[in-house]
């Protein structure tokens, strides 16, 4: 099966030479050069949409190379298929678990592996112990929590004796204890000569484990070398630097908050994924909701909007009780929610643009649709938001990510919000659109709309918010206002507890 | 606890429903409760069991085949024509099975390679294959099949015919194949998460193609049993069997969304669908109650199943968020001052 | 503006195919081109069209209704039973339509409660309804599989009535086409239908009343299936419980051929209506030039296979071509 070389003599496992990849007319990779040697742990770093995951999927055979060359162990491999890639000893642990929900953990891990079942099972049991997990082999994978699902994906990669292992953000749902166990396994594998690509957003982890780091931005490798040769700020600058003016100019600050009437009041709210949340939101105020992914912020927003039910507590809008409402009632009261995942819950990607912009106000329209008014409304948003499109009847899918996000914003604005909940409003958009959206948020606040801004980008929270509430594992972690709002302070509050835990277990 | 057991062992729930049916029968007349009844219902259910096995394979890959009735008819007609044309029984049956294989491969090609939605593709071939039946027979019935062929459906051992034994072996064989071999499991993997299966290096298209091909062969085999059992082949042979096959599989716990189910469950489902017929006759009720009872039970099972799943989902969700949802008397009161403070600051 | 865009539409392709088909059959047998033949041969298939229109709505929502054939039979038997028991024929018709509406509501409620694939639920209910039709006709003394006949003459004549020179069933079909077109493309309800089919999750976030919309769609399908059953009962002069069993697959074929995606989200009423005529004339045309009805059935199946396979291939080809074009244009910039 896999040939394992002693770590002394190194072999080039992967060599990417000016690799390009297009999705539709959008280029995701713009000439990437990269090499992976046997026994090397190679970290990849980059913002959303920088092309890390795409590059890894190409190596795993899920997408073909459109231009340039990819070599696996010296052989040209531009037309990999998943089957071929597996035969070459490449295994990808994807970012989003791709499990078989109806099959058991054991079947999920051992699926499509050759060899004696009993032997494989005992190897799996040993491995589970080694990574310090307590997975039950017979549970259907669909019933596992996200962290355990991710563990199953990782086990799949570890048990397969791959020559090239790709771990795409494996640590995002793991506890610090599990992370350190995983790192032990990774080191053991690299000593056996396995080459590992490791994608992570956490600089600390990369410094701890990686021999080489490559930083991708906008489809290119912009910085590469051993992690210790770069300072943190060098790395962050490489990731975020933009040609021309930076959109995240530190001097940029929200328009001064003039103070306004209290409009939304949340008292001791408990629900699915968060508890004891209390805050008040005022007209014209941008309240940032900071924290890490999975800290209960989206669940809180969905509860306010009426997608999920609150367990206890009270929400009032203009003194009226709106704790238990349906989305239609929320819309009617002026609470509008912009979902974080625009493809799956925000937009109707195959529907015409104008249908999307009027989706939230449809219920207010007469049964006989005024198509002309709808078209006019759409054109108005095309102008005010600067949406680039050919006609109102083209489908959302044909637009770029940034314009899609603007359509989503148009959909929310059409509902004339009093309270606007923005969940990751700049996810996956380019710098220019990001600047547009920031300006828009400033303007909306100036017009008196109360905005609850959820973002995992601390700089974004700092740039936009008058006040910041940080969520930590579902509980309010602290409040910052005025000059207290800094990236570091937000990070500290959102990681407050975890940093200590991480230190003690290492 | 019981509900959970039945949920996880759909075969057991179908078996329980069948048992209830027999108990009902026993209340009317105890003499019906005999091994003979069980065997005779099994003999009547052979065709349905075979195509239910095939449907299970296809549905496991998240596919669907509504053309099986037509494949049954076509294969039976081909076998009949060959036998009456003087060819040997073995050869005729082999050719008929081969025709079934071709039909199945054609369906599989449409679905796996051309990526036509399964129901649309097989809807087309449903008409196409049925037309081939009429073309091959010239529109007339095929009668006077050789006695040796019809004899295959007569009891030889323990009240079971050669066909009945073959079907039993087939059922057990397919069950083990699906459960214990890598390829069998990959059928379920493809149905459960196509992209995930692709990522692991499973040849998704070949797996789909194989499922449809085997399904075609099984449909052909069902057609042959049909011909042997009734002794002649009408042009409508196999008509509307696809719906019964899918209903049997669904009743037996096979999901149309792929990834779950066993052939044993599907076989029990088929047995149940057949037993309604026989039981009605024994209860001296008119046969026309059959479909209504089958439909009502199928709907009840589906709705109950949905309710149970919903309840389990809710409890799973509750456990996931338990620490946030359960009231904590001490901390919630301790937190109240903070709100006051917050609002005071704002004012 | 874009004057040629309509050429790319699937409806245009269907219309061209329809005209071409009529011309080809006419060239082989000029009798086919006689207006009376063209008009009155529709009575053989127009009942499929009536139910296919409503089925289009359900399929656009991403659902399906396999029980339409059974509902056709059930409605016809209901009509027969009411008539036999002395109810006025027109009131009996309303009763039958009411039963159709109820079946649709039952389907929708069952789908809502069980939260499983509509395919499975309506498969189950198709057994239930066809079984109910059999039971009713059995209990009604129509000795099991026999039909109920001897309807009021005015009802039987309906199918042969001419309105403005058109056969009455065809008029029903045309009127229904217009009504459903307006309903689907111009009303809020129609918009909801599309939105649910395109992205159920986003529809939930946008507050679309899903259960209500779906229930209306399924109820309309039930009513139209019942109407279709009544048209058949009038055409044949009798009501049978297994009336509609042969209409299910052609109805789905018409919707799919008409351009609706079986996964939901797209489709038009005009497409379905054109596809009904296309398949219907295909079969009558074949029969007029001397092909047996069984073979023409097969060829209709073949037509569906061919069309969907071609559509699938052109889609793949188009994707390849776009990719190639992008590569070519960007490639020059890159090098």
Automatic annotation (TrEMBL), chain A:
<dbReference type="InterPro" id="IPR003593">
    <property type="entry name" value="AAA+_ATPase"/>
</dbReference>
<keyword id="KW-0547">Nucleotide-binding</keyword>
<dbReference type="GO" id="GO:0005524">
    <property type="term" value="F:ATP binding"/>
</dbReference>
<feature type="domain" description="ABC transporter">
    <location>
        <begin position="258"/>
        <end position="498"/>
    </location>
</feature>
<feature type="domain" description="ABC transporter">
    <location>
        <begin position="14"/>
        <end position="243"/>
    </location>
</feature>
<comment type="similarity">
    <text>Belongs to the ABC transporter superfamily. AI-2 autoinducer porter (TC 3.A.1.2.8) family.</text>
</comment>
<dbReference type="GO" id="GO:0005886">
    <property type="term" value="C:plasma membrane"/>
</dbReference>
<dbReference type="InterPro" id="IPR050107">
    <property type="entry name" value="ABC_carbohydrate_import_ATPase"/>
</dbReference>
<comment type="subunit">
    <text>The complex is composed of two ATP-binding proteins (LsrA), two transmembrane proteins (LsrC and LsrD) and a solute-binding protein (LsrB).</text>
</comment>
<dbReference type="GO" id="GO:0016887">
    <property type="term" value="F:ATP hydrolysis activity"/>
</dbReference>
<dbReference type="InterPro" id="IPR017871">
    <property type="entry name" value="ABC_transporter-like_CS"/>
</dbReference>
<dbReference type="InterPro" id="IPR027417">
    <property type="entry name" value="P-loop_NTPase"/>
</dbReference>
<keyword id="KW-0067">ATP-binding</keyword>
<protein>
    <recommendedName>
        <fullName>Autoinducer 2 import ATP-binding protein LsrA</fullName>
        <ecNumber>7.6.2.13</ecNumber>
    </recommendedName>
</protein>
<dbReference type="InterPro" id="IPR003439">
    <property type="entry name" value="ABC_transporter-like_ATP-bd"/>
</dbReference>
From TrEMBL, chain B:
<feature type="transmembrane region" description="Helical">
    <location>
        <begin position="12"/>
        <end position="35"/>
    </location>
</feature>
<protein>
    <recommendedName>
        <fullName>Autoinducer 2 import system permease protein LsrC</fullName>
    </recommendedName>
</protein>
<feature type="compositionally biased region" description="Basic and acidic residues">
    <location>
        <begin position="337"/>
        <end position="347"/>
    </location>
</feature>
<feature type="transmembrane region" description="Helical">
    <location>
        <begin position="245"/>
        <end position="273"/>
    </location>
</feature>
<keyword id="KW-1003">Cell membrane</keyword>
<keyword id="KW-0997">Cell inner membrane</keyword>
<dbReference type="InterPro" id="IPR001851">
    <property type="entry name" value="ABC_transp_permease"/>
</dbReference>
<comment type="function">
    <text>Part of the ABC transporter complex LsrABCD involved in autoinducer 2 (AI-2) import. Probably responsible for the translocation of the substrate across the membrane.</text>
</comment>
<comment type="subunit">
    <text>The complex is composed of two ATP-binding proteins (LsrA), two transmembrane proteins (LsrC and LsrD) and a solute-binding protein (LsrB).</text>
</comment>
<feature type="transmembrane region" description="Helical">
    <location>
        <begin position="155"/>
        <end position="178"/>
    </location>
</feature>
<feature type="transmembrane region" description="Helical">
    <location>
        <begin position="209"/>
        <end position="233"/>
    </location>
</feature>
<keyword id="KW-0812">Transmembrane</keyword>
<dbReference type="GO" id="GO:0022857">
    <property type="term" value="F:transmembrane transporter activity"/>
</dbReference>
<feature type="region of interest" description="Disordered">
    <location>
        <begin position="327"/>
        <end position="347"/>
    </location>
</feature>
<feature type="transmembrane region" description="Helical">
    <location>
        <begin position="41"/>
        <end position="59"/>
    </location>
</feature>
Automatic annotation (TrEMBL), chain C:
<dbReference type="GO" id="GO:0022857">
    <property type="term" value="F:transmembrane transporter activity"/>
</dbReference>
<keyword id="KW-1003">Cell membrane</keyword>
<feature type="transmembrane region" description="Helical">
    <location>
        <begin position="66"/>
        <end position="83"/>
    </location>
</feature>
<comment type="subunit">
    <text>The complex is composed of two ATP-binding proteins (LsrA), two transmembrane proteins (LsrC and LsrD) and a solute-binding protein (LsrB).</text>
</comment>
<feature type="transmembrane region" description="Helical">
    <location>
        <begin position="243"/>
        <end position="263"/>
    </location>
</feature>
<feature type="transmembrane region" description="Helical">
    <location>
        <begin position="12"/>
        <end position="32"/>
    </location>
</feature>
<dbReference type="GO" id="GO:0005886">
    <property type="term" value="C:plasma membrane"/>
</dbReference>
<dbReference type="Pfam" id="PF02653">
    <property type="entry name" value="BPD_transp_2"/>
</dbReference>
<feature type="transmembrane region" description="Helical">
    <location>
        <begin position="119"/>
        <end position="143"/>
    </location>
</feature>
<protein>
    <recommendedName>
        <fullName>Autoinducer 2 import system permease protein LsrD</fullName>
    </recommendedName>
</protein>
<keyword id="KW-0812">Transmembrane</keyword>
<keyword id="KW-1133">Transmembrane helix</keyword>
<dbReference type="InterPro" id="IPR001851">
    <property type="entry name" value="ABC_transp_permease"/>
</dbReference>
<comment type="function">
    <text>Part of the ABC transporter complex LsrABCD involved in autoinducer 2 (AI-2) import. Probably responsible for the translocation of the substrate across the membrane.</text>
</comment>
<feature type="transmembrane region" description="Helical">
    <location>
        <begin position="163"/>
        <end position="184"/>
    </location>
</feature>
